[in-house]
Design brief:
There is one protein chain. The chain is 44% helix and 18% strand. By secondary structure, the protein is an alpha/beta fold. It has a single domain, classed as 3-Layer(aba) Sandwich (Rossmann fold). It has a five-stranded parallel sheet, with helices on both faces. Helix 2 runs parallel beside helix 3. It is globular, with a radius of gyration of 13 Å. The N terminus is likely disordered.
Amino acid sequence: MMNNVNVMQRILVIDDDLDVRESIRDLLASENLGCSVAATGTEGLAKLKAESPDLVVTDIQLPDVSGYQVCQSVKRDAGSRQTRVIMITGRFTEPQDKVQGFESGADEVFTKPFDPKYFIARVKSILRKAA
C-alpha cells in the first residue's frame, strides 16, 4: 500500500491575501506538492478549467465571489465534479459556516490560522482518496 501522494497531482490555491497564498504554496512545496495560485474566485475558476487540478484550496471570503460559490461551481461542472475542495476562512468561524461549506461540497473546512502539519495530513489524505 502506497502512503505517499503522487507528485503529479495538482493543487490550486485561491486566496485574495498574497501572504496566505504564498505561505500555503510554500507549505505544499515543502512536502513536494506543487500548486498554482489565484487571487480571485473568477481567476481560480479560469485556472480550474485550464489546469484541471485534483484539489482546490479556496478561501471562503473572496473579493468577487464566495468560496462557497467557487465550490458549488467546481461540483456542478462535469469536467471538475471529481475535484476535491478544501475551504479556509479567517472570518467565518461559526459552526453553521462550516456546515455551509460542507453543504457546498467541500471535503474539509479549516479556520485560519491552522496547524500546518494537520493541514498537510488532510491534504494528503484527501488526495489519496481522490486517486
